[in-house]
């Protein structure tokens, strides 16, 4: 019989890892709520008609598609099998696992727009799936934590995203990070300036790979994608623009004749100004003209967050999309959002040893079990501990004390309440500190007071 194994690109999370993940989720959730975002969940799978065509060609190929249930191939003719995988897929699969949380959110907004209070601010914390090649920091199943605002084109939303990131990451212990910002309008203007009008999509996909494959390979890819040598030559300032102290000035000098590029520059400058007005001192924000983000639905500001001094990709990304709901027949609903990659944040925190030692999900006290009468007595104490908000359990079997203490020790339970015949007669229970070995006699109420105020 073969041993069970995990599907590539997925992971199990045991109790220790889940305690850490819960810490991340809770920290992010609190900040989202503080900024006025409301919770939302959507199904794990969507109709492929909802998902296809929203992420560009590369994204479409990374969708996990679900075979139709039952006899999925029963109605197929021999000719259908010869057509190639794309036409065949549409005949045997109608649904797919969600690739991100933004497109399902857009679908939700369109379906419920009559009842939503606009602008609508929502956050969503759920897993997504991508048929990507697994590698360090890249998984096929991973959680995203999204916060989006739709129904307004105010640049305050972009500025608040910057503030939100500056609140969440330090709360997780990640203080050395950079929020890179660009604007798709600038990239559209660049495409126009180099004589490649309407080719900003392929331009963005190639430029977005700059930090992964380097300038030479990007140039090679642009030529392969149909850009002329002259266009690629004119693109050269892109590779040095972000390094200057005054990138906006350099942009104006280069792209001053492009109306759409200048609109992008003005939008970015306003975001910078609003961040200052909101009181964020020394913001860790950086303009990066090579930041493109491969997703095809962004139309304005785009964000990407890197944790510095760690060899892991971006831990957050997002941007402004003016026409995402338009693909569902409802144009004109502008939105902007940010997505935090919990799995990468987890890896960063693990690498930098940033998790707090005390996790609130763990058991704080265990009640011993010597014999049937002590067990019954312990059962009367257990609900009182839990009612006081103390994580508590009782050892289920009457076995030797050493086995019970070993169990508590292996689970890192800091306190054990020992209940024997003396304790039952006097009502003075023995509280053992597993770290120091110290024991003290206290009644149940005093134990509850001590444990409720103890941060161990």
TrEMBL record:
It catalyses: tRNA(His) + L-histidine + ATP = L-histidyl-tRNA(His) + AMP + diphosphate + H(+). Coiled coil: none annotated. Pfam families: HGTP_anticodon, tRNA-synt_His. Its EC number is 6.1.1.21. L-histidine binds at residues 100-102, 130, 144, 148, 293, 297-298. Its main location: cytoplasm. It is found in: Cytoplasm. GO terms for biological process: histidyl-tRNA aminoacylation. GO terms for cellular component: cytoplasm. Homodimer. Belongs to the class-II aminoacyl-tRNA synthetase family. PANTHER family: HISTIDINE--TRNA LIGASE, HISTIDYL-TRNA SYNTHETASE. This is Histidine--tRNA ligase. The gene is hisS.
């Amino acid at each position: 019989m073969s041993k069970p194994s995990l599907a590539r690109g997925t992971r199990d999370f045991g109790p220790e890892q889940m305690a850490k993940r819960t810490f991340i989720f809770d920290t992010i959730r609190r900040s989202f709520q503080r900024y006025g975002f409301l919770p939302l969940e959507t199904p794990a799978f969507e109709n492929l008609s909802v998902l296809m065509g929203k992420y560009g060609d590369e994204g479409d190929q990374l969708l996990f598609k679900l075979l139709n249930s039952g006899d999925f191939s029963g109605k197929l003719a021999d000719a259908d099998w010869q057509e190639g995988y794309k036409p065949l897929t549409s005949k045997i699969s109608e649904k797919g696992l969600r690739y991100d949380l933004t497109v399902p959110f857009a679908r939700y907004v369109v379906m419920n727009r009559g009842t939503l209070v606009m602008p609508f601010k929502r956050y969503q914390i759920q897993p997504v799936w991508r048929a990507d090649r697994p590698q360090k920091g890249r998984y096929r199943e991973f959680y995203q934590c999204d916060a989006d605002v739709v129904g307004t084109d105010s640049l305050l939303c972009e500025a608040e995203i910057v503030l939100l990131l500056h609140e969440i990451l330090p709360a997780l212990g990640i203080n050395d990070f950079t929020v890179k910002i660009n604007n798709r309008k600038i990239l559209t203007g660049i495409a126009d300036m180099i004589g490649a009008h309407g080719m900003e999509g392929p331009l963005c996909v190639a430029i977005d790979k700059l930090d992964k494959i380097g300038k030479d390979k990007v140039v090679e890819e642009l030529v392969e994608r149909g850009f002329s040598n002259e266009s690629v030559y004119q693109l050269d300032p892109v590779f040095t623009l972000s390094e200057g102290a005054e990138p906006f000035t350099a942009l104006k000098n280069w792209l001053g004749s492009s109306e759409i590029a200048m609109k992008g520059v003005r939008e970015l400058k306003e975001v910078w100004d609003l961040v200052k007005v909101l009181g964020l001192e020394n913001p860790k924000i950086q303009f990066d003209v090579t930041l493109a983000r491969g997703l095809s639905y962004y139309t304005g500001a785009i964000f990407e967050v890197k944790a510095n001094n760690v060899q892991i990709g971006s831990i957050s990304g997002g941007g402004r999309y003016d026409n995402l709901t338009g693909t569902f027949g409802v144009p004109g609903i502008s939105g902007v959002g940010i997505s935090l990659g919990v799995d990468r944040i987890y890896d960063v925190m693990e690498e930098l040893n940033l998790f707090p030692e005390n996790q609130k999900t763990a058991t704080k006290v265990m009640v011993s079990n010597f014999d049937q009468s002590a067990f019954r007595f312990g059962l009367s104490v257990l609900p009182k501990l839990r009612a006081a908000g103390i994580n508590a359990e009782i050892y289920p079997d009457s076995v030797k004390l050493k086995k019970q203490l070993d169990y508590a020790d292996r689970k890192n339970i800091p306190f054990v309440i020992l209940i024997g015949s003396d304790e039952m007669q006097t009502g003075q229970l023995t509280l053992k500190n597993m770290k120091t070995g110290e024991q003290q006699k206290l009644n149940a109420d005093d134990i509850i007071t001590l444990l409720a105020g103890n941060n161990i």
